[in-house]
Amino acid sequence: MKPNIVVPPPGPKSMEIVKKDSELLMQSFARWYPLVVKRAYGVWVEDVDGNVYLDFNSGIAVTNVGHAHPKVVQAIKEQAEKYLHYSLTDFLYEEPVKLAEKLSKITPGAFPKKVFYTNSGTESIEAAIKTARGHFRGTRPYIIAFAGSFHGRTYGSLSLTSSKPVQRRHLGPLLPGVYHAPYPYCYRCPFKQRYPECNMWCVDFIEEWMLKKYVPPEEVAAVVIEPIAGEGGYIVPPPEFFKRLRELADKYGFLLIVDEVQSGMGRTGKWFAIEHFGVTPDIIAVAKGIASGLPLGAIIGKAEVMDLPPGSHASTFGGNPVSCAAALATIQVIEEEKLLENATRVGEYAMKRLREMQTEIPAIGDVRGKGLMIGAELVTEKGEPHIKLLQLTLDTAFKKGLLVIGAGQSTIRIAPPLTITQEQMETGLSILEESIKEAQRKL
C-alpha cells in the first residue's frame, strides 16, 4: 500500500470543515496543515476527501500500536459493554489494579511501586509536582525544570514548560518556586561549549550556580526532566548526563522525576527512554501512547514517595475502566508483536537513511534520536534554525501523502506507529527527501 492523493489537499470537504472549525472552536492551538481525518488504520490515515496518507506522527506519539488495532478495539468494546464509569477515587474496580500491576513490572526499578491515574500528560505532571512537594510535607517547595522542555499547559505543568514563549505569553503569574536550567542540547549548547570537552558543565551549572547561588538545595523537592526533549526538538542528552543528574539528586536528597509522556510506552525501542541511560527515576509520568488514544495518564513511583494522604489528590475520570482496558491491550500488543524490537530495528534504518540524506542535503544540520523518536534539524547556510524551510517541507510532504510535523524551531519530528515496516519507512523517507529538495527550490 502507498499514499494515495486523489484530490489535492485540502479538498472541498476538508475546507468546509476547516471553515466551521474556525467559526466554532477556540483557536488556541496551531495546526501544521489542514488535515481533516475521516478514519485511520495501522500506519494509514484517510481524510474526508478520500486521500490516504502515511502517518509519521502517530497522532502526536499516541497510536504506538497503530491506529485502531483490532485487539485494542476489541478490549474497548468488551469493557464498554460491562460498564463505562464508577469513579475510582470513591470506589474500586479491577481494571486499574491489573494495569497498575503491569505498569509496575515494565517501569525501571526493582522496588515496590504505586500508581496514580490521570487523564492526560499535563495532569500526570501536575500529580508529580503535588506528590513531590507533598512527600516532603512542605519542607521542600522548589522544583528544578529545564529550559526548552514541554510538560503541559495547565498552570502547574506550564510553570515547568518553556519550549516556546507563546505557551506562557499573557498567562502569568505562574506557579512560584520553579527554576530552569539549560537542557543538554549539545548541537546548540547554551554555554557555547563542545561535548565531551565540556565535562558536562550543564550538570555542574545546576550545582555550582543554581544550588549555591539562589536555590537552597535542602528546599528542592524534585528535578523534572524529559529523557528526550519532545516539543523542544527531539533532543537526546549525552550518555552520561542522567547518571550525573541522579548523583546530584541523591547528594542533596531531592527526587528525580522523568516526563515520559511522549518518549514512553516503547517509543524509543525500550518501554521508557530513561532506560537508555541506565538510571532509575523516583517517579515516571506517562500518558499519550499508554491507551492508544483513549484519555489516560499515570504516574508510577517508588511506594515510599507516593504517600499523599487520603483526600489530598484525586480525579473523577482518572483510571477509567475503558481506558485501562485499552492500556492493558496496548501493552499486550507491544509485547506480542515485539514492537520494542521493531522500533529499534526500523529506527536504526531511518537514522542511517537520514544521515545519508544529510551528506547530500547540507540543510539537514543534525540527525538524532532513539528508536522511532527521531529528529532531523533543518538549518540555514549559517547553521541557524531554518523555520521557513521546515514549514515548507511539512506542507509539501502533506500534499505528497506524508503526515509529518515539526518540533523545536526547525526540527522534522519522525514518530510513526511502532508497527511501521522498513518498506513503509523508506516510502515515507523518500517522500520526505523529495519534499525537502522541493521546498528548497521554493525559497
TrEMBL record:
Reactions that this protein is recorded to catalyse: L-ornithine + 2-oxoglutarate = L-glutamate 5-semialdehyde + L-glutamate
A molecular function GO annotation: ornithine aminotransferase activity
Protein keywords: Aminotransferase, Pyridoxal phosphate, Transferase
Needed co-factor(s): pyridoxal 5'-phosphate
EC code: 2.6.1.13
Superkingdom of the source species: Archaea
Pfam families reported for this sequence: Aminotran_3
Presence of keyword Transferase: yes
Stated family: Belongs to the class-III pyridoxal-phosphate-dependent aminotransferase family.
PANTHER family: AMINOTRANSFERASE CLASS III (PTHR11986), LEUCINE_METHIONINE RACEMASE (PTHR11986:SF58)
Name of the featured protein: Ornithine aminotransferase
